[in-house]
Amino acid sequence: QVQLVESGGGLVQPGGSLRLSCAASGFTLDDYAIGWFRQAPGKEREGVSCIRRGGTTYLADSVKGRFTISRDNAKNTVYLQMNNLKPEDTAVYYCATHRRWGTCRREDLYELWGRGTQVTVSS
Predict the structure, then answer these.
(1) Region 98-108: what's the mean pLDDT?
(2) Residue 106 backbone dihedrals phi, psi, to 5 degrees
(3) What is the pLDDT of residues 20-61, one digit of tens each?
(4) Which class for 76: exposed (0-12), middle (13-18), buried (19 or more C-beta within 10 A)?
(5) Which phi and psi angles does 18 have, rounded to 5°?
(6) What secondary structure does DSSP assign to 22-86, as a single string?
(7) From CA 19, how far away is CA 23, in angstroms rounded?
């Protein structure tokens, strides 16, 4: 079955860390661009980070210096390491994939989405 499954979310205090995982099954992630998106209550979904086919990465300005995206091809998994979390990072985080070359920032290109994992940053 072709799917993406996110995990690693939870409740964390401001300044804390979480590592989100996006595990793929039924296909090889290395052949795809992978993106992390988030949606907070009452807000539109926004791109957080992504890896292009070819391996270059992108981080949104709001998370630069705090988040890191990486891929473990042996585990067919992409990670989002989130440090120094802030209350405004609270959202449901989704991973998604597409096979286009050259870009990973266009949300409309993403074809396969996971169901999301909740991240709550609160004291």
Answers:
(1) 90
(2) -85, 110
(3) 999 999 999 988 999 999 999 999 999 999 999 888 999 999
(4) middle
(5) -145, 155
(6) EEEESS-GGGSEEEEEEE-TTS--EEEEEE-TTS-EEE-TTTTTTEEEEEETTTTEEEEEE-S--
(7) 13
